[in-house]
Write a structure and sequence with these properties.
Number of helices: 24
CATH class of the largest domain: Alpha Beta
Number of domains: 3
GO molecular function, one term: glutaminase activity
Largest sheet: 14 strands, mixed
Organism: Lophotis ruficrista
Distance between the termini: 84 Å
Shape: globular
Oligomer: single chain
Protein name: Glutamine-dependent NAD(+) synthetase
CATH topology of the largest domain: Nitrilase/N-carbamoyl-D-aminoacid amidohydrolase
Enzyme class: ligase
Number of strands: 20
Strand content: 15-25%
CATH architecture of the largest domain: 4-Layer Sandwich
EC number: 6.3.5.1
Helix content: 40-55%
Length: 708
């Protein structure tokens, strides 16, 4: 009898609303799966239309085009003799569902709607879809004519059911259902389902991959079984990077691992596994078997097809492997680099321009672009024809072959140091040396003439000339003069992005890169509409602490020795006058807090859901060895004042790569007001009351101890 089943999990770089491209990638994945002997193929969540369609899900066009693609899939000879499991939105009785459509040989076997919808953080599925709340219930779905003409079916099963093939039983989960406390795989497994499938649209967050892997392995550790996870990969049109990691697990152990970061648009993972290993594993778990005897059965859709061959005793099966996780520094090097590549090739621009200040943030951004160039050259070396074709379109040279990352960097990456009278020679030299080492086309320019012209217009109109505080000016004058410099740099960045290639006799324009980190955005330590205003920002979701560690990683792995002096220099905006030729302004002094403190504030505010009072209560314990309660109260109040004053800046924040769960991105992840009462009067009064009671208590204890 058949016992060795061959199954495939796919990671596809789908693009929202790119129906033609999505269809081609799905067909290619099915073809690869079949060529490697797979009898079942699983793809990512909503792969037909692309996961990130957002409010386009409301449009009937999205539903129509999804069914048109499904018809093409059903008709294709590529999809014959393999069970295909694809994702798309489906309207059933005027309710929109996020569905899996499972078909075999031009016949739809089951449409399975999603039961638990993702609706936290970056996810808004309840905005567009309704969860299927009828457990173990199946209804008739009336197919549209475009599908009836292909399948010859008028209706198909729609609902919560499992597939019973000749040799095994398969049950479906969709993304969030794995993360839910009452995951369907629990009761499906008790009801005899041996293979669980999960189609995901799961995005990258630093240090998150192990959680997903642990969830998959634990799904079958207690209950036995085979778990197949497919995931979206790449940038499908917004801030998120879907990080692949397709995997197959059996009885609590990983047997096949896909890549987390890759420029391959299609990745197929195939594993051959012995069903008898599942059955023997389950047989000795008495608690599982007792629970199984009482479980309510699932509706079974009978499928006249086997995932195994009748004579497969000699077929080799996969053995457990150890999952290899990337370090956070490797994640920063690879994730944003792949995201930038997708954005560049799909926007059809000719490269990037980065204002390179010689500081940690812009240098880290430059290193990510350099890492992207490394990934591109490596992909071409490994025979990736898609990447080579994209490269040749970007550089407008049909014969070009990228072999050296530095040479490729010169073609697609322009860096620009924008000096003023407040800039030091040290930062200028650092920027120039880094540009030489990564190979970027580097420009040095001076903005003083533009600054003087702008300030001169103000002086002519008002009769007043603002001064820096070191020359006797007020804090308002000082800040205004800093902002003028910062905003002029933004204007010049876009001018040079549009025309630099023109001056070099090359076609196209450049995307402007921003380089404000997540901590500065949270604090609002940036000028609105300065160089933080760009087309995209690859480090906008990464903390200063992680960026410093990434810089050290680049020194060691890319041999970028110019980064050593950048690492050792204190972060500075260089917007105030120098003192004896040296920088007198530093970021942390300007902010009134350290970057390490900012990371803690950010995590407590967003992840721990702490308002001012709760944050104070947590920090008096966290910082009890280094701060008094009164000092903690002062720090918390200062943070929330600055946060409230500057929250409006988040409404215009450059779209950033999402890497941290405490990102203040106003677009969809961190939904809050941008006009606050900055006094926080009630909240701060609660803090003051608690501080006073603590000092009263400490005083009472001290008095008791001294008297005793």
């Amino acid at each position: 009898m058949g016992r060795a089943v061959s199954v495939a999990a796919c990671a596809l770089n789908q693009w929202a609303l790119d129906f033609e491209g999505n269809l081609a990638r799905i067909l290619r994945s099915i073809d690869i799966a079949k060529s490697q002997g797979a009898r079942y193929r699983l793809g990512p969540e909503l792969e037909i239309c692309g996961y990130g369609c957002s409010d386009h899900y409301y449009e009937s066009d999205t539903l129509l085009h999804s069914f048109q693609v499904l018809a093409k899939l059903l008709e294709s000879p590529v999809t014959q003799d393999i069970i295909c499991d694809v994702g798309m939105p489906v309207l059933h009785r005027n309710v929109r569902y996020n569905c899996r459509v499972i078909f075999l040989n031009k016949k739809i076997l089951l449409i399975r709607p999603k039961i638990s919808l993702a609706n936290a953080g970056n996810y808004r599925e309840l905005r567009w879809f309704t969860p299927w709340n009828k457990a173990r219930h199946v209804e008739e779905y009336f197919l549209p004519r475009i599908i009836q003409e292909v399948t010859g079916q008028e209706t198909v099963p729609f609902g919560d059911a499992v597939l019973a093939t000749k040799d095994t039983c398969l049950g479906t989960e969709i993304c969030e259902e794995l993360w839910a406390p009452n995951s369907p795989h629990i009761e499906m497994g008790l009801d005899g389902v041996e293979i669980f499938t999960n189609s995901s649209g799961s995005h990258h967050v630093l240090r998150k991959a192990h959680t997903r892997v642990d969830l998959v392995n634990s799904a079958t550790a207690k209950n036995g079984g085979i778990y197949i996870l497919a995931n979206q990969k790449g940038c499908d049109g917004d801030r998120l990077y879907y990080d692949g990691c397709a995997m197959i697990s059996m009885n609590g152990e990983t047997v096949a691992q896909g890549s987390q970061f890759s420029l391959d648009d299609v990745e197929v993972l195939v594993a051959t596994l012995d069903l008898e290993d599942v059955r023997s594993y389950r047989a000795e778990i008495s608690s599982r078997n007792l629970a199984a005897s009482k479980v309510d059965p699932y509706p079974r859709i009978k499928v006249n097809f086997a995932l195994s061959c009748s004579d497969d005793v000699a077929v080799p099966t996969c053995m457990p492997i150890q999952w290899r996780h990337h370090s956070p520094e490797e994640e920063i090097s690879l994730g944003p680099a792949c995201w930038l590549w997708d954005y560049l090739r799909r926007s059809k621009q000719a490269g990037f321009l980065l204002p390179l200040s010689g500081g940690i943030d812009s240098s880290a951004t430059a290193c990510i672009v350099f890492s992207m160039c490394h990934q591109v050259c490596l992909a071409v070396k490994n025979g990736n024809a898609d990447v080579l074709a994209d490269v040749r379109k970007i550089v407008n040279d049909e014969a070009y072959l990228p072999e050296d990352p530095r040479e490729f960097c010169k073609r697609i990456f322009t860096t620009c140091y924008m000096a003023s009278e407040n800039s030091s020679q040290d930062t200028c030299n650092r920027a120039k040396l880094l540009a030489e080492q990564i190979g970027s086309y580097h420009i040095n320019l001076n903005i003083d003439a533009a600054v003087k012209a702008i300030v001169g217009i103000f002086s002519v109109v008002t009769g007043r000339t603002p001064r820096f505080s070191v020359y006797g000016g007020s804090s308002r004058e000082n800040l205004a003069l800093q902002n003028v410099q910062a905003r002029i740099r933004m204007v010049l960045a876009y001018l040079f992005a549009q025309l630099t290639l023109w001056t070099r006799g090359m076609p196209g324009g450049l995307l402007v890169l921003g380089s404000a980190n997540v901590d500065e955005s949270l604090r609002g330590y940036l000028t609105k509409y300065d160089c933080s205003s760009a087309d995209i920002n690859p480090i906008g979701g990464i903390s200063k602490t992680d960026l410093k560690n990434f810089i050290q990683y680049c020194i060691e792995n890319f041999q970028l020795t110019a980064l050593r002096s950048i690492m050792s220099a204190p972060p500075t905006a260089e917007l105030e006058p120098l003192v004896d030729g040296q920088v007198a302004q530093t970021d942390e002094e300007d902010m009134g807090m350290t970057y390490a403190e900012l990371s803690i504030y950010g995590k407590l505010r967003k992840i721990a859901k702490a308002g001012p009072y709760s944050m104070f209560c947590k920090l008096i314990n966290m910082w009890k060895e280094i701060c008094t309660p009164r000092e903690v109260a002062s720090k918390v109040k200062h943070f929330f004042r600055m946060y409230a004053i500057n929250r409006h800046k988040m409404t215009t924040l450059t779209p950033s790569y999402h890497a941290e769960n405490y990102s203040p991105d106003d677009n969809r992840f961190d939904l809050r007001p941008f006009l606050y009462n900055t006094t926080w009067s009630w909240q701060f009064r609660c803090i003051d009351k608690q501080v006073n009671s603590l000092y009263f208590l400490y005083g009472f204890i001290f008095k008791a101890l001294t008297m005793g």
